[in-house]
């Protein structure tokens, strides 16, 4: 669903809503996967991102996002210099993530590491600053960053949804949408839960601590 | 949000409300936010839009590559008589100003995108200044523009990499034409015709910036996109009707975008980027950017 404020916005540092603002948001989402500014990041640019990213400041915007800068933050302009102070070691590469007809032209794979946490994310910048995360650690997802989102993989056990919904309720967090998919009966269940209030890191940790949960990520809202 | 302008116009007519009201009500319902809060966000966008215009008119900003800058001030200070009337020149000046700020990595409102960010503020604030229209009416107009842009995003695309410049300055021209038509007293139906008239005038427009940078021709396409919007507004307010409905013109834009060769979709592989001068300037300027001078 498209919002008026997605169209009349974001307020952003130029020059490109897809190659600068959207790229920054993808960096912010990747940062979320490791709970803070990563120590190491490998950014693999695909398609138009790879061909024209440099002139649009795509590199500065993604690195800025990884450090927690939002699209209207002036510091994006000097992000590559700032990241040395922040202890972020980054590397950019050009890649092909698949057939041109199947992969969005503004796609990127970001691999992030922080302490004992790491993650690989594939996402795309759809235009007008809107973004889509397609894949996290090899699992297909669909996260737009319009809501605070928890993504998790769990064993297919009875009562799992009720247990997780209960954890959110205890923290006073309202669930907006919940999508559950699994490959087959008894196979891993994959949940994408969008919530109205920003969940704290402890909510993710509570979910992660459930014995049948394999992993859980928290992706904070990045849209206006 | 509505996925069809036809549907939004029908609801507006049935309920006897302007399109901006229909748009705000739909947004409030979708997002679970009060209308006053959405209007506040649009008012903040208007402030940033005005700030970008003022910043650009100072005339001291140049892009990293040095390819664009200073032309908004040149147009504003020109002593040559305005060929097509002073509001027209004023709108073009404002469009250049916003895009020059954008190219210099200044702060703008992507509406709908950064590459097409000059058209909407130029047309709306330019016409409001010449007609003495107040800011609340401008906020309403931004809501109408948001509705039109949401329909384009849903049915076609707002990305030059996906659909060429017709999806950026073309979509911006449609949004500006529709929003300004309502702001100047047009009916919901006339808004639909304004969108169709503007968008048809940009069908097939390619995205071919030098070096892939949002500079050349982007800065100038915002000015010419604004001119197309003004033409559409003139015709729609006079009661001129475009026989193909706006939704179908938008669908056509999406279809043309999908069939457009990749060289014309923000890859700098064709169009002006691939001209002898385009290639030479790209080579020279990219070296300059890398040096950081």
Defining traits:
heterodimer; A: 224 residues; alpha+beta; 60s Ribosomal Protein L30, Chain: A; Alpha-Beta Plaits; 2 domains; 6-stranded mixed β-sheet; 4-stranded antiparallel β-sheet; 7 helices; B: 293 residues; mainly alpha; 2-methylcitrate dehydratase PrpD; 13 helices; 1% strand; globular
Tell me what the structure shows.
The complex is a heterodimer of chains A (224) and B (293). Chain A has 224 residues and is of the alpha+beta class. Chain A contains seven helices and eleven strands. A six-stranded mixed beta sheet of chain A has the order 3-2-4-5-6-7. In chain A, 51% of the residues are buried. With 293 residues, chain B is mainly α. Chain B has a single domain, classed as 2-methylcitrate dehydratase PrpD, CATH 1.10.4100. Helix content of chain B is 64%, strand content 1%. Chain B is built from 13 helices and one strand. In chain B, helix 3 packs across helix 5. The mean pLDDT of chain B is 95. Chains A and B meet through helix 1, strand 1, helix 2, helix 3 and strand 5 of A and helix 2, helix 3, helix 5, strand 1 and helix 7 of B. Strand 1 of chain A pairs antiparallel with strand 1 of chain B.
Show the helix and strand layout.
The complex is a heterodimer of chains A (224) and B (293).
Chain A lengths: L3 H4 L3 E3 L3 H17 L6 E7 H10 L1 H9 L12 H8 L2 E7 L10 E9 L2 E11 L2 E7 L2 E5 L4 E7 L5 H11 L4 E8 L6 E7 L5 H9 L3 E7 L5
Parallel strand pairs in A: 2-3
Antiparallel strand pairs in A: 2-4, 4-5, 5-6, 6-7, 8-10, 8-11, 9-10
Chain B lengths: L4 H11 L3 H13 L3 H23 L13 H6 L9 H18 L3 E3 L9 H13 L3 H21 L4 H4 L5 H15 L4 H13 L17 H20 L8 H14 L16 H16 L2
């Amino acid at each position: 669903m498209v919002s008026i404020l997605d169209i009349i916005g974001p307020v952003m540092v130029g020059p490109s809503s897809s190659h600068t603002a959207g790229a920054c948001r993808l960096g912010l989402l990747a940062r979320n996967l490791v709970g803070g500014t990563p120590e190491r990041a490998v950014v693999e640019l695909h398609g138009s991102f790879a061909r024209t990213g440099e002139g649009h400041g795509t590199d500065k915007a993604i690195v800025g996002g990884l450090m927690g800068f939002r699209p209207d933050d002036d510091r994006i302009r000097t992000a590559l210099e700032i990241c040395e102070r922040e202890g972020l070691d980054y590397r950019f590469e050009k890649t092909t993530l698949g057939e041109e007809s199947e992969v969005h032209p503004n796609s990127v794979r970001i691999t992030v590491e922080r302490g004992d946490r790491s993650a690989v994310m594939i996402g795309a910048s759809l235009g007008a600053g809107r973004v889509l995360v397609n894949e996290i650690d090899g699992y297909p997802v669909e996260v737009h960053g319009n809501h605070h989102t928890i993504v998790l993989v769990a064993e297919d056990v009875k009562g799992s949804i009720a247990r997780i919904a209960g954890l959110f309720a205890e923290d006073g967090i309202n669930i907006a949408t919940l999508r559950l998919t699994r490959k087959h009966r008894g196979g891993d269940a994959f949940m994408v839960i969008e919530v109205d209030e920003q969940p704290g890191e402890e909510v993710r940790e509570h979910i992660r601590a459930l014995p049948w949960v394999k992993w859980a990520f928290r992706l904070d809202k990045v849209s206006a | 949000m509505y996925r069809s302008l036809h549907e939004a116009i029908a609801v507006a007519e049935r309920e006897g409300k302007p399109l901006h009201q229909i748009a705000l009500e739909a947004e409030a319902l979708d997002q679970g936010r009060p209308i006053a809060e959405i209007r506040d966000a649009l008012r903040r966008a208007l402030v940033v839009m005005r700030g970008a215009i003022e910043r650009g008119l100072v005339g001291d900003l140049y892009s990293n590559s040095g390819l664009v800058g200073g032309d908004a001030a040149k147009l504003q200070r020109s002593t040559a008589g305005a060929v097509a009337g002073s509001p027209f020149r004023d709108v073009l000046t404002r469009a250049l100003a916003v895009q020059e700020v954008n190219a210099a990595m200044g702060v703008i409102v992507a509406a709908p995108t950064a590459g097409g960010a000059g058209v909407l503020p130029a047309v709306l604030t330019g016409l409001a200044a010449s007609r003495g229209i107040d800011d609340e009416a401008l906020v309403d107009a931004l809501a109408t523009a948001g509705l039109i842009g949401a329909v384009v995003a849903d049915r076609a695309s707002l990305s030059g990499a996906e659909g060429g410049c017709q999806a950026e300055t073309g979509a911006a021209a449609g949004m500006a034409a529709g929003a300004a038509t309502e702001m100047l007293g047009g009916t919901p139906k006339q808004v639909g015709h304004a969108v169709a008239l503007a968008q048809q005038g940009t069908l097939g427009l390619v995205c071919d910036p030098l070096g892939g940078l949002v500079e050349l021709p982007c800065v100038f396409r915002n000015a010419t996109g604004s001119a197309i919007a003004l033409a559409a507004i003139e015709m729609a307010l006079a009661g001129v009707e475009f026989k193909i409905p706006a939704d179908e013109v938008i669908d056509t834009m999406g279809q043309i975008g999908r069939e457009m060769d990749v060289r014309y979709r923000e890859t700098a592989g064709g169009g002006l980027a691939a001209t002898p001068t385009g290639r030479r300037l790209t080579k020279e300027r990219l070296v300059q950017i890398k040096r950081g001078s």
